[in-house]
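Re: that chain you flagged

S.,

Sorry for the slow reply, it's been a week of failed gels. I finally had a moment to sit down with the sequence you sent. For the record, here it is as I used it:
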Amino acid sequence: MLSTKTLPTPFITFLLTSLLAYANNKTMARPKKYRCIGCSPNSSYFKPRGIPLFHLEEVSLSLDEIEAIRLADYEGLYQEEAAARMKISRQTLGRILNEARRKVAEALIQGKALKIETNENPKEDKA
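Prediction finished late last night. Pasting the structure tokens below so you have them in one place:
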């Protein structure tokens, strides 16, 4: 059996944190990587015409989803070049694009409002 004197302290801390998270059925997520956003949307909502906003369900799009759609669909860049501009991997861009396109399709098909989140963490939005 290994003694704790032979293991570096950061490794022990990581190991204990991982075990506690596993025991509590929580996963340890990697911190979210910084993403380069090159646009600021002019509007924060799009909705079907003739229906008041308070009658509609909302679908929220994050700024990174808006940026991915702008680069890939509006500017017509290949995913690899769009990912390089956002400073993320192509696979990450692909996941962001799929989710963004699904949300836009859901809003169009089901007549929901599209809300563009302007802060980094929408759950911290104080009303």
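What I noticed first: The chain is about 45% helix and 10% strand.

Talk soon,
D.
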